[in-house]
Amino acid sequence: MLGLMQSQSLLISGILTRAARHHATAPVISRLHDGTTHRYGWVDVERRSRQLVRALQSLGVTASDRIGTLAWNGYRHLEVYYAAPGMGAICHTINPRLHPDDLAYIVTHAADRILFVDISFVALIEAIAERVKECVRDVVILTDAATMPAVKLAPGMRLHCYDTRLADADADYAWPDFDENTASALCYTSGTTGRPKGVLYSHRSTLLHAYAACMPDVLCARAGERILPVVPMFHVNAWGIPYACALTGAGLVLPGRHLDGASLAGLLNEEQVTLTCGVPTIWMGLLQHLRTSGQTLTSVRRIMTGGSATPPLLIEAFRDEQNIRVEHGWGMTELSPVGTYNAPKETQMGLQGAAAVRHMLKQGRILPGIDMKIVDGDGKELPWDGVAFGDLLVRGPWIASAYYGEPPNSALDAEGWFATGDVATIDPDGFMEITDRSKDVIKSGGEWISSIALENIAVSHPDVLEAAVIAARHPKWDERPLLLVVPRPGHTVDPASVLKLYEGQIAKWWLPDEVLVVDSLPHGATGKLQKTTLRAQFKEYYMGSAGS
Ligand code: AMP
Hints:
Blueprint: H1 12-22, E1 27-31, E2 37-41, H2 42-58, E3 66-70, H3 75-86, E4 90-93, H4 100-110, E5 114-117, H5 122-132, E6 138-141, E7 158-161, H6 162-167, E8 183-189, E9 197-202, H7 203-213, E10 226-229, H8 236-239, H9 241-248, E11 251-254, H10 261-270, E12 275-278, H11 280-293, E13 302-305, H12 312-322, E14 325-331, E15 338-341, H13 346-349, H14 353-360, E16 365-366, E17 371-375, E18 390-395, E19 418-426, E20 432-437, E21 441-444, E22 447-450, H15 451-458, E23 464-474, E24 478-487, H16 495-501, E25 514-517, H17 531-538
Parallel strand pairs: 1-11, 3-4, 3-5, 4-8, 5-6, 6-7, 10-11, 10-12, 12-13, 13-14, 24-25
Antiparallel strand pairs: 1-2, 8-9, 14-15, 15-16, 17-18, 18-19, 19-20, 21-22, 23-24
Helix pairs in contact: 1-2, 1-9, 2-3, 4-5, 7-9, 10-11
The structure holds adenosine monophosphate.
Residues 189, 191, 236, 306-309, 328, 330-333, 337, 363, 420-422, 434, 437, 443, 448 line the site of adenosine monophosphate (AMP).
Protein backbone atom coordinates (compact mmCIF):
# COMPACT_ATOMS: atom_id res chain seq x y z
CA MET A 1 0.00 0.00 0.00
CA LEU A 2 1.33 3.43 -0.88
CA GLY A 3 1.25 6.35 1.50
CA LEU A 4 -1.22 9.11 0.94
CA MET A 5 1.10 12.07 1.14
CA GLN A 6 1.55 14.68 -1.56
CA SER A 7 4.17 13.97 -4.10
CA GLN A 8 6.19 16.85 -5.41
CA SER A 9 9.38 16.57 -7.44
CA LEU A 10 12.53 17.67 -5.61
CA LEU A 11 13.67 20.28 -8.11
CA ILE A 12 16.41 22.90 -7.94
CA SER A 13 13.96 25.54 -9.15
CA GLY A 14 11.91 24.70 -6.03
CA ILE A 15 14.61 25.87 -3.64
CA LEU A 16 15.16 29.01 -5.71
CA THR A 17 11.50 29.99 -5.77
CA ARG A 18 11.29 29.27 -2.05
CA ALA A 19 14.31 31.52 -1.43
CA ALA A 20 12.72 34.28 -3.52
CA ARG A 21 9.42 33.99 -1.63
CA HIS A 22 10.72 33.54 1.92
CA HIS A 23 14.18 35.11 1.86
CA ALA A 24 13.76 37.71 -0.86
CA THR A 25 16.29 40.14 0.53
CA ALA A 26 18.78 37.72 2.10
CA PRO A 27 22.00 39.01 0.61
CA VAL A 28 23.84 37.53 -2.34
CA ILE A 29 27.07 39.49 -2.53
CA SER A 30 29.78 39.19 -5.19
CA ARG A 31 33.26 40.66 -5.28
CA LEU A 32 33.88 41.51 -8.93
CA HIS A 33 37.12 41.47 -10.91
CA ASP A 34 37.57 45.23 -10.64
CA GLY A 35 37.31 45.12 -6.84
CA THR A 36 33.77 46.52 -6.72
CA THR A 37 30.94 44.69 -4.97
CA HIS A 38 27.62 43.59 -6.45
CA ARG A 39 24.68 43.06 -4.13
CA TYR A 40 21.19 41.77 -4.56
CA GLY A 41 18.78 39.30 -2.94
CA TRP A 42 17.38 35.85 -3.70
CA VAL A 43 14.33 37.44 -5.30
CA ASP A 44 16.64 39.02 -7.89
CA VAL A 45 18.56 35.79 -8.46
CA GLU A 46 15.28 34.05 -9.20
CA ARG A 47 13.96 36.74 -11.56
CA ARG A 48 17.20 37.05 -13.48
CA SER A 49 17.50 33.25 -13.73
CA ARG A 50 14.11 33.20 -15.43
CA GLN A 51 15.30 35.89 -17.81
CA LEU A 52 18.40 33.82 -18.45
CA VAL A 53 16.23 30.83 -19.42
CA ARG A 54 14.54 33.05 -22.01
CA ALA A 55 17.96 34.15 -23.27
CA LEU A 56 19.07 30.52 -23.48
CA GLN A 57 15.94 29.58 -25.36
CA SER A 58 16.56 32.41 -27.83
CA LEU A 59 19.94 30.81 -28.50
CA GLY A 60 18.27 27.48 -29.22
CA VAL A 61 19.15 25.76 -25.93
CA THR A 62 16.70 23.02 -24.94
CA ALA A 63 16.28 20.48 -22.14
CA SER A 64 19.23 18.09 -21.61
CA ASP A 65 21.68 20.41 -23.40
CA ARG A 66 24.97 20.80 -21.59
CA ILE A 67 25.75 24.40 -20.66
CA GLY A 68 29.43 24.83 -19.84
CA THR A 69 30.83 27.46 -17.48
CA LEU A 70 34.43 28.64 -17.13
CA ALA A 71 34.00 31.06 -14.27
CA TRP A 72 34.93 32.14 -10.75
CA ASN A 73 32.41 32.46 -7.94
CA GLY A 74 30.11 35.33 -8.86
CA TYR A 75 26.46 36.26 -9.29
CA ARG A 76 26.27 35.72 -13.05
CA HIS A 77 27.70 32.23 -12.60
CA LEU A 78 25.09 31.65 -9.87
CA GLU A 79 22.33 32.58 -12.31
CA VAL A 80 23.59 29.98 -14.79
CA TYR A 81 23.62 27.49 -11.88
CA TYR A 82 19.90 27.97 -11.42
CA ALA A 83 18.68 28.77 -14.96
CA ALA A 84 20.25 25.72 -16.64
CA PRO A 85 18.81 22.98 -14.41
CA GLY A 86 15.61 24.98 -13.88
CA MET A 87 14.78 24.57 -17.58
CA GLY A 88 15.83 20.90 -17.60
CA ALA A 89 19.28 21.55 -19.08
CA ILE A 90 22.60 20.70 -17.38
CA CYS A 91 25.05 23.15 -15.83
CA HIS A 92 28.51 21.84 -16.62
CA THR A 93 31.13 23.62 -14.51
CA ILE A 94 34.64 23.36 -15.93
CA ASN A 95 37.90 23.76 -13.99
CA PRO A 96 39.86 26.54 -15.74
CA ARG A 97 43.08 25.49 -14.02
CA LEU A 98 43.36 22.44 -16.26
CA HIS A 99 45.65 22.26 -19.27
CA PRO A 100 43.91 23.38 -22.51
CA ASP A 101 44.14 19.77 -23.82
CA ASP A 102 42.08 18.54 -20.87
CA LEU A 103 39.67 21.46 -21.20
CA ALA A 104 39.07 20.70 -24.88
CA TYR A 105 38.63 17.01 -24.05
CA ILE A 106 36.09 17.76 -21.30
CA VAL A 107 34.07 20.22 -23.39
CA THR A 108 33.86 17.82 -26.35
CA HIS A 109 33.21 14.78 -24.15
CA ALA A 110 30.32 16.61 -22.50
CA ALA A 111 29.33 18.02 -25.93
CA ASP A 112 28.69 21.43 -24.41
CA ARG A 113 26.28 23.38 -26.58
CA ILE A 114 27.14 26.77 -25.13
CA LEU A 115 29.87 28.16 -22.88
CA PHE A 116 29.59 30.93 -20.29
CA VAL A 117 33.04 32.40 -19.80
CA ASP A 118 34.46 34.88 -17.27
CA ILE A 119 36.26 37.82 -18.77
CA SER A 120 39.48 36.53 -17.20
CA PHE A 121 39.29 33.29 -19.22
CA VAL A 122 39.05 34.83 -22.68
CA ALA A 123 42.55 33.59 -23.58
CA LEU A 124 41.54 30.07 -22.53
CA ILE A 125 38.48 29.95 -24.72
CA GLU A 126 40.50 31.34 -27.61
CA ALA A 127 43.06 28.57 -27.08
CA ILE A 128 40.47 25.78 -27.28
CA ALA A 129 37.92 27.32 -29.69
CA GLU A 130 39.12 25.42 -32.77
CA ARG A 131 39.02 22.12 -30.88
CA VAL A 132 35.52 22.53 -29.48
CA LYS A 133 33.76 24.08 -32.47
CA GLU A 134 31.99 20.82 -33.37
CA CYS A 135 29.78 21.12 -30.29
CA VAL A 136 30.01 24.69 -28.96
CA ARG A 137 27.78 27.04 -30.97
CA ASP A 138 27.68 30.03 -28.63
CA VAL A 139 30.07 31.69 -26.22
CA VAL A 140 28.66 34.14 -23.69
CA ILE A 141 31.11 36.41 -21.86
CA LEU A 142 29.98 37.03 -18.28
CA THR A 143 30.25 40.80 -18.36
CA ASP A 144 28.51 44.02 -19.38
CA ALA A 145 28.58 45.84 -22.72
CA ALA A 146 31.10 48.42 -21.54
CA THR A 147 33.75 45.81 -20.73
CA MET A 148 32.92 43.33 -23.49
CA PRO A 149 36.24 42.12 -24.96
CA ALA A 150 37.02 41.14 -28.54
CA VAL A 151 37.29 37.33 -28.59
CA LYS A 152 38.72 35.27 -31.42
CA LEU A 153 36.45 32.26 -31.81
CA ALA A 154 36.35 29.54 -34.46
CA PRO A 155 34.27 30.06 -37.62
CA GLY A 156 30.60 29.31 -36.95
CA MET A 157 30.77 30.15 -33.24
CA ARG A 158 28.75 33.13 -32.04
CA LEU A 159 29.90 35.58 -29.37
CA HIS A 160 27.52 37.25 -26.88
CA CYS A 161 27.64 39.66 -23.97
CA TYR A 162 25.86 38.26 -20.89
CA ASP A 163 24.30 41.50 -19.66
CA THR A 164 23.14 42.47 -23.16
CA ARG A 165 21.44 39.10 -23.72
CA LEU A 166 19.81 39.30 -20.32
CA ALA A 167 18.58 42.86 -20.84
CA ASP A 168 16.85 41.72 -24.03
CA ALA A 169 15.11 38.80 -22.31
CA ASP A 170 11.66 38.72 -20.69
CA ALA A 171 11.10 37.42 -17.17
CA ASP A 172 7.83 35.73 -18.13
CA TYR A 173 9.19 32.18 -17.84
CA ALA A 174 7.44 29.75 -15.48
CA TRP A 175 9.61 27.01 -13.97
CA PRO A 176 8.42 23.64 -15.32
CA ASP A 177 7.77 20.49 -13.32
CA PHE A 178 9.58 17.30 -14.35
CA ASP A 179 11.09 14.10 -12.99
CA GLU A 180 13.36 14.80 -10.03
CA ASN A 181 15.85 12.25 -11.36
CA THR A 182 16.56 14.51 -14.34
CA ALA A 183 20.23 15.45 -14.66
CA SER A 184 21.01 18.91 -13.28
CA ALA A 185 24.76 19.44 -13.24
CA LEU A 186 27.94 17.87 -14.54
CA CYS A 187 31.41 18.09 -13.02
CA TYR A 188 34.53 16.30 -14.24
CA THR A 189 36.97 14.91 -11.76
CA SER A 190 40.60 14.07 -12.32
CA GLY A 191 40.65 12.07 -9.13
CA THR A 192 41.44 8.91 -11.03
CA THR A 193 44.27 8.28 -13.42
CA GLY A 194 43.73 8.78 -17.12
CA ARG A 195 41.25 11.21 -18.62
CA PRO A 196 38.89 13.22 -16.41
CA LYS A 197 35.51 11.58 -15.80
CA GLY A 198 32.13 13.29 -15.58
CA VAL A 199 29.91 13.04 -12.51
CA LEU A 200 26.30 13.79 -13.44
CA TYR A 201 24.16 15.03 -10.57
CA SER A 202 20.36 14.95 -10.55
CA HIS A 203 17.86 17.38 -9.05
CA ARG A 204 16.97 14.78 -6.44
CA SER A 205 20.59 14.05 -5.47
CA THR A 206 21.35 17.76 -5.27
CA LEU A 207 18.42 18.51 -2.99
CA LEU A 208 18.96 15.53 -0.70
CA HIS A 209 22.62 16.51 -0.40
CA ALA A 210 21.67 20.13 0.32
CA TYR A 211 19.25 19.08 3.08
CA ALA A 212 21.90 16.91 4.72
CA ALA A 213 24.66 19.52 4.32
CA CYS A 214 22.55 22.14 6.13
CA MET A 215 22.01 19.98 9.23
CA PRO A 216 23.34 21.24 12.58
CA ASP A 217 26.07 18.57 12.71
CA VAL A 218 27.26 19.61 9.26
CA LEU A 219 27.31 23.19 7.89
CA CYS A 220 24.51 24.29 10.21
CA ALA A 221 23.40 26.70 7.49
CA ARG A 222 20.50 28.96 8.44
CA ALA A 223 18.96 32.36 7.91
CA GLY A 224 21.12 35.03 9.46
CA GLU A 225 24.40 33.25 8.66
CA ARG A 226 26.57 34.61 5.88
CA ILE A 227 28.53 31.92 4.10
CA LEU A 228 31.51 32.51 1.85
CA PRO A 229 32.55 29.52 -0.27
CA VAL A 230 36.20 30.00 -1.18
CA VAL A 231 35.93 26.60 -2.79
CA PRO A 232 35.26 27.39 -6.44
CA MET A 233 31.88 26.87 -8.06
CA PHE A 234 33.73 24.67 -10.58
CA HIS A 235 34.68 22.27 -7.74
CA VAL A 236 31.65 20.09 -7.09
CA ASN A 237 29.20 22.98 -7.06
CA ALA A 238 31.20 24.84 -4.43
CA TRP A 239 30.47 21.92 -2.10
CA GLY A 240 26.74 22.54 -2.55
CA ILE A 241 26.80 25.89 -0.73
CA PRO A 242 24.92 27.86 -3.42
CA TYR A 243 22.02 25.40 -2.93
CA ALA A 244 22.34 25.25 0.86
CA CYS A 245 22.08 29.05 1.08
CA ALA A 246 18.97 29.23 -1.09
CA LEU A 247 17.39 26.40 0.87
CA THR A 248 17.88 28.07 4.23
CA GLY A 249 17.96 31.75 3.35
CA ALA A 250 21.56 32.12 4.49
CA GLY A 251 23.45 34.99 2.89
CA LEU A 252 25.90 34.01 0.17
CA VAL A 253 29.17 35.88 -0.37
CA LEU A 254 31.00 35.06 -3.61
CA PRO A 255 34.67 36.07 -3.62
CA GLY A 256 35.51 36.21 -7.34
CA ARG A 257 39.04 35.50 -8.42
CA HIS A 258 41.19 37.04 -5.66
CA LEU A 259 41.65 34.32 -3.05
CA ASP A 260 44.86 35.48 -1.37
CA GLY A 261 44.90 36.04 2.38
CA ALA A 262 44.60 39.83 2.28
CA SER A 263 41.70 39.87 -0.20
CA LEU A 264 39.83 37.20 1.74
CA ALA A 265 40.36 38.82 5.14
CA GLY A 266 39.07 42.13 3.76
CA LEU A 267 35.97 40.56 2.24
CA LEU A 268 35.20 38.37 5.27
CA ASN A 269 35.22 41.42 7.55
CA GLU A 270 33.51 43.87 5.21
CA GLU A 271 30.62 41.52 4.54
CA GLN A 272 30.46 40.14 8.09
CA VAL A 273 30.78 36.53 6.97
CA THR A 274 30.08 33.98 9.72
CA LEU A 275 31.15 30.74 8.01
CA THR A 276 33.66 30.19 5.22
CA CYS A 277 34.58 26.98 3.42
CA GLY A 278 37.65 25.88 1.46
CA VAL A 279 40.82 23.80 1.27
CA PRO A 280 43.69 23.95 3.81
CA THR A 281 46.05 25.77 1.41
CA ILE A 282 43.66 28.73 1.40
CA TRP A 283 43.47 28.79 5.19
CA MET A 284 47.25 28.63 5.53
CA GLY A 285 47.47 31.68 3.24
CA LEU A 286 44.82 33.48 5.26
CA LEU A 287 46.55 32.60 8.53
CA GLN A 288 49.87 33.88 7.26
CA HIS A 289 48.27 37.17 6.24
CA LEU A 290 46.54 37.57 9.61
CA ARG A 291 49.80 36.90 11.43
CA THR A 292 51.90 39.33 9.41
CA SER A 293 49.28 42.09 9.28
CA GLY A 294 47.99 41.68 12.83
CA GLN A 295 44.45 41.82 11.42
CA THR A 296 41.58 40.14 13.28
CA LEU A 297 38.58 38.45 11.68
CA THR A 298 35.62 40.18 13.28
CA SER A 299 32.64 38.04 12.29
CA VAL A 300 33.83 34.57 11.23
CA ARG A 301 32.91 31.97 13.83
CA ARG A 302 33.63 28.80 11.87
CA ILE A 303 35.96 27.78 9.07
CA MET A 304 35.10 24.58 7.27
CA THR A 305 38.09 22.83 5.78
CA GLY A 306 38.13 19.83 3.46
CA GLY A 307 39.52 18.54 0.20
CA SER A 308 42.76 17.52 1.92
CA ALA A 309 43.72 16.51 5.44
CA THR A 310 43.72 19.34 7.98
CA PRO A 311 47.09 20.27 9.48
CA PRO A 312 46.76 20.52 13.31
CA LEU A 313 48.32 23.98 13.15
CA LEU A 314 45.20 25.29 11.39
CA ILE A 315 42.91 24.17 14.17
CA GLU A 316 45.19 25.45 16.94
CA ALA A 317 46.16 28.76 15.35
CA PHE A 318 42.65 29.85 14.39
CA ARG A 319 41.35 28.79 17.81
CA ASP A 320 44.09 30.53 19.82
CA GLU A 321 44.72 33.60 17.66
CA GLN A 322 41.28 34.34 16.18
CA ASN A 323 38.79 32.48 18.39
CA ILE A 324 37.50 30.62 15.32
CA ARG A 325 36.54 26.97 15.24
CA VAL A 326 37.99 24.99 12.33
CA GLU A 327 35.67 22.16 11.28
CA HIS A 328 36.83 19.26 9.17
CA GLY A 329 34.87 17.49 6.45
CA TRP A 330 35.60 14.94 3.78
CA GLY A 331 34.05 14.38 0.42
CA MET A 332 34.51 13.74 -3.25
CA THR A 333 33.17 14.98 -6.55
CA GLU A 334 31.37 11.62 -6.77
CA LEU A 335 29.65 12.36 -3.41
CA SER A 336 28.15 15.74 -4.36
CA PRO A 337 30.60 16.19 -2.42
CA VAL A 338 30.06 16.04 1.34
CA GLY A 339 30.43 12.55 2.83
CA THR A 340 31.56 13.02 6.41
CA TYR A 341 31.78 15.89 8.87
CA ASN A 342 33.56 16.04 12.18
CA ALA A 343 30.95 17.21 14.67
CA PRO A 344 31.37 15.93 18.24
CA LYS A 345 29.04 13.45 19.89
CA GLU A 346 28.43 13.65 23.63
CA THR A 347 31.56 11.53 24.27
CA GLN A 348 33.81 14.00 22.44
CA MET A 349 32.35 17.20 23.86
CA GLY A 350 34.51 17.06 26.95
CA LEU A 351 37.78 16.64 25.08
CA GLN A 352 40.33 19.33 25.85
CA GLY A 353 43.63 20.57 24.47
CA ALA A 354 45.72 18.15 22.43
CA ALA A 355 43.13 15.37 22.70
CA ALA A 356 40.47 17.67 21.22
CA VAL A 357 42.74 18.70 18.35
CA ARG A 358 43.75 15.09 17.70
CA HIS A 359 40.10 14.16 17.42
CA MET A 360 39.31 17.05 15.09
CA LEU A 361 41.89 15.75 12.62
CA LYS A 362 39.54 12.86 11.86
CA GLN A 363 37.43 13.35 8.76
CA GLY A 364 34.27 12.71 10.74
CA ARG A 365 30.93 10.93 10.79
CA ILE A 366 28.98 9.91 7.72
CA LEU A 367 26.10 12.26 6.88
CA PRO A 368 22.56 11.01 7.56
CA GLY A 369 21.19 9.52 4.35
CA ILE A 370 24.35 7.79 3.14
CA ASP A 371 26.52 5.01 4.55
CA MET A 372 30.15 3.91 4.64
CA LYS A 373 32.25 0.86 5.46
CA ILE A 374 35.89 -0.20 5.33
CA VAL A 375 36.96 -3.49 3.77
CA ASP A 376 40.14 -5.54 3.48
CA GLY A 377 41.73 -6.70 0.22
CA ASP A 378 39.15 -9.53 -0.07
CA GLY A 379 36.22 -7.18 0.36
CA LYS A 380 35.55 -8.37 3.96
CA GLU A 381 34.18 -5.67 6.21
CA LEU A 382 36.61 -4.48 8.89
CA PRO A 383 35.72 -3.56 12.48
CA TRP A 384 35.07 0.00 13.62
CA ASP A 385 37.83 -0.01 16.23
CA GLY A 386 39.80 3.02 15.07
CA VAL A 387 42.76 0.74 14.34
CA ALA A 388 41.90 -1.57 11.43
CA PHE A 389 42.30 0.27 8.16
CA GLY A 390 40.96 -0.64 4.75
CA ASP A 391 39.40 0.64 1.54
CA LEU A 392 36.63 3.11 2.22
CA LEU A 393 33.36 2.34 0.40
CA VAL A 394 30.23 4.50 0.38
CA ARG A 395 26.68 4.29 -0.90
CA GLY A 396 23.59 6.45 -0.92
CA PRO A 397 21.33 8.71 -2.97
CA TRP A 398 23.86 11.50 -3.61
CA ILE A 399 26.71 9.20 -4.63
CA ALA A 400 27.53 8.54 -8.30
CA SER A 401 26.53 5.17 -9.77
CA ALA A 402 28.39 5.58 -13.08
CA TYR A 403 30.51 8.19 -14.81
CA TYR A 404 29.03 10.21 -17.65
CA GLY A 405 28.93 8.17 -20.84
CA GLU A 406 29.64 4.86 -19.08
CA PRO A 407 27.23 1.91 -18.53
CA PRO A 408 24.65 2.09 -15.71
CA ASN A 409 26.02 1.24 -12.24
CA SER A 410 29.51 0.66 -13.65
CA ALA A 411 31.09 2.62 -10.78
CA LEU A 412 29.58 0.27 -8.17
CA ASP A 413 30.33 -3.20 -6.84
CA ALA A 414 27.71 -5.96 -6.79
CA GLU A 415 26.18 -4.66 -3.54
CA GLY A 416 25.99 -1.09 -4.79
CA TRP A 417 29.02 0.29 -2.96
CA PHE A 418 31.29 2.93 -4.49
CA ALA A 419 35.05 2.59 -3.81
CA THR A 420 36.44 5.97 -2.87
CA GLY A 421 40.13 5.19 -3.42
CA ASP A 422 40.77 6.38 0.13
CA VAL A 423 42.07 4.11 2.88
CA ALA A 424 40.61 4.76 6.33
CA THR A 425 39.87 3.65 9.87
CA ILE A 426 36.51 4.08 11.58
CA ASP A 427 36.37 4.37 15.37
CA PRO A 428 33.62 2.93 17.60
CA ASP A 429 31.82 6.29 17.56
CA GLY A 430 31.73 6.22 13.75
CA PHE A 431 34.44 8.81 13.13
CA MET A 432 36.29 8.00 9.92
CA GLU A 433 39.94 8.91 9.52
CA ILE A 434 41.83 8.72 6.25
CA THR A 435 45.20 7.04 6.62
CA ASP A 436 46.27 6.72 2.99
CA ARG A 437 45.06 6.82 -0.58
CA SER A 438 45.01 3.84 -2.94
CA LYS A 439 44.39 5.99 -6.00
CA ASP A 440 47.61 7.07 -7.61
CA VAL A 441 47.27 10.83 -7.73
CA ILE A 442 48.69 13.95 -6.11
CA LYS A 443 46.51 16.67 -4.57
CA SER A 444 48.21 20.03 -4.71
CA GLY A 445 46.36 22.99 -3.21
CA GLY A 446 43.08 21.13 -3.64
CA GLU A 447 43.68 20.25 -7.30
CA TRP A 448 44.56 16.86 -8.75
CA ILE A 449 47.74 15.99 -10.62
CA SER A 450 47.90 12.65 -12.43
CA SER A 451 51.08 10.76 -11.54
CA ILE A 452 50.69 8.45 -14.53
CA ALA A 453 50.57 11.40 -16.96
CA LEU A 454 53.81 12.74 -15.44
CA GLU A 455 55.49 9.32 -15.53
CA ASN A 456 54.58 8.77 -19.17
CA ILE A 457 56.31 12.00 -20.14
CA ALA A 458 59.39 11.25 -18.02
CA VAL A 459 59.94 7.83 -19.64
CA SER A 460 59.90 9.44 -23.09
CA HIS A 461 63.26 11.03 -22.14
CA PRO A 462 66.09 9.24 -24.00
CA ASP A 463 68.15 8.75 -20.82
CA VAL A 464 65.31 7.52 -18.59
CA LEU A 465 64.62 3.81 -18.12
CA GLU A 466 61.88 4.01 -15.51
CA ALA A 467 60.04 6.75 -13.65
CA ALA A 468 57.78 7.04 -10.63
CA VAL A 469 55.90 10.09 -9.40
CA ILE A 470 54.68 10.18 -5.83
CA ALA A 471 52.77 12.64 -3.69
CA ALA A 472 55.21 14.15 -1.17
CA ARG A 473 53.83 16.28 1.65
CA HIS A 474 54.42 20.00 1.23
CA PRO A 475 54.12 22.82 3.78
CA LYS A 476 52.14 25.13 1.50
CA TRP A 477 50.39 22.97 -1.10
CA ASP A 478 49.60 19.88 1.06
CA GLU A 479 51.21 17.68 -1.57
CA ARG A 480 53.56 18.21 -4.52
CA PRO A 481 54.79 15.72 -7.11
CA LEU A 482 58.24 14.24 -6.61
CA LEU A 483 59.73 12.49 -9.64
CA LEU A 484 62.15 9.57 -9.25
CA VAL A 485 63.96 8.36 -12.35
CA VAL A 486 66.24 5.42 -13.08
CA PRO A 487 68.80 6.06 -15.87
CA ARG A 488 69.15 3.72 -18.84
CA PRO A 489 72.24 1.52 -18.54
CA GLY A 490 75.30 3.56 -19.51
CA HIS A 491 73.38 6.88 -19.45
CA THR A 492 73.29 9.71 -16.95
CA VAL A 493 70.14 11.74 -16.42
CA ASP A 494 70.23 15.52 -16.30
CA PRO A 495 67.20 16.46 -14.11
CA ALA A 496 66.83 19.86 -15.82
CA SER A 497 66.46 18.23 -19.21
CA VAL A 498 63.73 15.93 -17.84
CA LEU A 499 61.81 18.91 -16.49
CA LYS A 500 62.22 20.72 -19.80
CA LEU A 501 60.42 17.86 -21.50
CA TYR A 502 57.21 18.82 -19.68
CA GLU A 503 57.05 22.30 -21.20
CA GLY A 504 53.78 22.80 -23.09
CA GLN A 505 52.61 19.24 -22.33
CA ILE A 506 51.10 19.86 -18.91
CA ALA A 507 49.69 22.75 -16.90
CA LYS A 508 52.68 24.58 -15.34
CA TRP A 509 51.63 23.79 -11.77
CA TRP A 510 51.79 20.05 -12.53
CA LEU A 511 55.59 20.23 -12.95
CA PRO A 512 57.38 18.03 -10.35
CA ASP A 513 59.18 20.24 -7.84
CA GLU A 514 62.23 17.98 -7.95
CA VAL A 515 63.70 15.09 -9.91
CA LEU A 516 65.69 12.49 -7.95
CA VAL A 517 67.93 10.16 -9.90
CA VAL A 518 67.96 6.71 -8.24
CA ASP A 519 69.61 3.37 -9.10
CA SER A 520 66.39 1.37 -8.98
CA LEU A 521 62.73 1.49 -7.98
CA PRO A 522 60.99 -1.10 -5.74
CA HIS A 523 58.73 -3.68 -7.43
CA GLY A 524 56.29 -6.23 -6.03
CA ALA A 525 56.08 -9.93 -6.88
CA THR A 526 54.04 -9.22 -10.01
CA GLY A 527 56.51 -6.59 -11.17
CA LYS A 528 54.23 -3.71 -10.20
CA LEU A 529 55.88 -0.56 -8.95
CA GLN A 530 55.50 -0.35 -5.16
CA LYS A 531 54.43 3.20 -4.61
CA THR A 532 53.64 2.55 -0.97
CA THR A 533 57.32 1.79 -0.31
CA LEU A 534 58.35 4.92 -2.16
CA ARG A 535 55.78 7.02 -0.32
CA ALA A 536 57.00 5.71 3.02
CA GLN A 537 60.56 6.63 2.04
CA PHE A 538 60.03 10.01 0.39
CA LYS A 539 56.74 11.30 1.79
CA GLU A 540 58.42 13.93 3.95
CA TYR A 541 60.94 14.97 1.29
CA TYR A 542 59.61 18.53 0.88
CA MET A 543 58.71 19.15 4.50
CA GLY A 544 62.08 20.68 5.29
CA SER A 545 61.70 23.21 2.49
CA ALA A 546 60.19 26.63 3.11
CA GLY A 547 57.56 25.98 0.46
CA SER A 548 57.61 28.03 -2.65
P1 AMP B 1 37.65 15.70 -5.17
O1 AMP B 1 36.84 14.76 -5.97
O2 AMP B 1 38.55 16.57 -5.99
O3 AMP B 1 36.81 16.48 -4.22
O4 AMP B 1 38.66 14.84 -4.29
C1 AMP B 1 38.20 13.88 -3.38
C2 AMP B 1 39.37 13.29 -2.65
O5 AMP B 1 40.08 14.31 -1.95
C3 AMP B 1 39.04 12.27 -1.62
O6 AMP B 1 38.79 10.99 -2.16
C4 AMP B 1 40.27 12.31 -0.75
O7 AMP B 1 41.34 11.56 -1.31
C5 AMP B 1 40.63 13.78 -0.76
N1 AMP B 1 40.03 14.46 0.39
C6 AMP B 1 38.90 15.19 0.43
N2 AMP B 1 38.69 15.67 1.66
C7 AMP B 1 39.69 15.23 2.44
C8 AMP B 1 40.03 15.37 3.82
N3 AMP B 1 39.29 16.10 4.65
N4 AMP B 1 41.14 14.76 4.25
C9 AMP B 1 41.92 14.03 3.44
N5 AMP B 1 41.67 13.86 2.13
C10 AMP B 1 40.56 14.45 1.62
